Amino acid sequence: MALFCTPPANDRDGAAHIVQVAVGKEHGLFLTDEGQVYSWGTSSSTDKQMAQLGRSAQGLQAQEPAKVGDKLRDKLVVQIACGAEHCMVLTKEGELFVWGNNTAGQLGVGWTPTKGVKRDKEQTAVSRPRQVTIKENMPVRSISCAPESSACVLENGEVYIWGAISHFMFNEGSRYGPGENICVPVRVRGTPPHDFKDRKLVADQVAVCRDQLACTIAPSSLEDHLQNYITSLRRRSAQLIALTRAPDRGMMGSTGSGVHPADRLNIPKSAVQHLNEEFVEEIRKLEREINEKDSDRKQLESELKSIARGVTICDQQEQALNDDASALEIKRNELTGDANAARRALDSQLNDNRHFKESNKTMKLQLLKQREEKELKLLALMQKLSDLKQQKGEFDARTRLLDNLQRGQLGNASGTSSDDVLTVVDGKRMELEATHPQVLSGAGQFCGMREVIGISNHALHDIYGALREVSSTSGGVDNLAIEEVLESNFKLRKEVNGLIEDALKEACNMIEKKDGFFEEACNKKAQKDNPLNRNQGGDRGGNSLFGGFFGGFG
């Protein structure tokens, strides 16, 4: 039997890369990146050897990989597994398909073994992919096969087994419940719950053998599972960056200097302890706020449910009133001309019905308005709650950072020495201090405050671009927290520079206004003291006087 690395060259579907492979006793499967399954192996005249391929093939045709079609033709497969003479595949939608030998019930297609009763051909072997339904079509997370056993994990974390392993794990069938046997999926009962940091963990991946199985655990929420995966990738990326930047550094570092990390940064231990106490107090404050907001959230959700019930009742009352009005209208139309009293009674009832409708409509509008207000409050509350949790996470990271700093274990978790970490941190801290306008103004010859602020902003921009050197030193959680602290310090320094720029602009505007006032005053005084201006004024006055005199005389 040969193992092919790619699909046959004459395959026009164009499947390019193999992403999974599984083998059985005399057959094998591989999965392509397009979600297509190919099988190959030995096929003879026996039913079980023909069935294990999931397709029709004889002789040399069976030994070349070919696509398994039928019910899998339009499916996107994400996982494959092989037993000794049977196969299982899992689709993207969580559907489970099986085929192959079924003499031990390893396919889980659901026949009941009876002593002395011979099984038919379809019960001993399935030659084409057949779907197995478990617990009302609940999606499947993962699958696994042993020689004559099968297992899977559902989306909710429940583990199901069938085949030989089911016989052994359920005490040779003596612990089966009603309708349970080795030929149908049976849930493994008594699995202990797992909770870690307020997260519910459930079974994720499963591996099965003849009489035992093992499972990995993962968060039940897909968002939490992806967040853990993203965090892990970030840590690995930081470690790889550290290795590429320092290839000659050993994996296991040591401080060697005998100096406490806090002393290397010239930070008094009392100050570190005081800062730690402030962080702990802030964390407690945030926890209280989170609990209060969470209580408010539950209260709002309860009120929204009550409002929803009220709206439903109003809708039901509206429907009932409409039915009553229709019935009254029919009765009124059936009355003859002499039944005035009955007609007046029906008119009164119809009038009351209209009043009830208006009242019910008003109540419904009030409830809808209340629901809109509550939903807006709930949205704002959820945003606030998310912000508080994020702040608490930042303070938790800084508290752990200070604790490791006090114990001298900063950076040791990933094998990098504390000296290496603190050297980078101390350098970034000194660079930030050097960008302060007050420090810059006394360190060089500048034309003015505007030039000092410009140089400070430019230096801050360069430092911010190099902050990633901190996390890349060892990639630990402590270094990520240090990077966040330095980034917060950077943002505060930017705000300080912005405030100084605003004050500088305001001062310049005031000076310009005052200069204009003094310049105008000086110009008026100069014109008044100029003798030429006085003579010109007298001539103009004399000319006017003589002109008026001659004009009057003429």
Features:
554 residues; disordered C terminus; alpha+beta
Q: How does the SSE layout of this entry go?
A:
Layout: E1 18-23, E2 27-32, E3 37-41, H1 47-51, H2 60-63, E4 66-67, E5 77-82, E6 86-91, E7 96-101, H3 121-124, E8 125-132, E9 140-146, E10 149-154, E11 159-163, H4 164-169, E12 186-187, E13 194-196, E14 199-208, E15 213-219, H5 222-245, H6 261-264, H7 269-334, H8 340-407, H9 418-434, H10 437-441, H11 449-465, H12 468-474, H13 477-529, H14 531-553
Antiparallel strand pairs: 1-2, 2-3, 3-4, 5-6, 6-7, 7-8, 9-10, 10-11, 11-12, 13-14, 14-15
Q: Flag low-confidence runs.
A: 247-262, 411-418, 534-554
Order of helical and strand elements:
EEEHHEEEEHEEEEHEEEEHHHHHHHHHH
CA-based gyration radius? 42 Å
Distance between the termini: 138 Å
Number of alpha- plus pi-helical segments: 14
Query: What does the largest sheet look like?
Result: 4 strands, antiparallel
Strand order of the largest sheet: 1-2-3-4
- Mean of residue pLDDT values: 76
Query: What share of residues are in beta strands?
Result: 15-25%
Q: Report the count of strand segments.
A: 15
Shape: flat
- How helical, in percent, are the residues? 40-55%
Structural class: alpha+beta
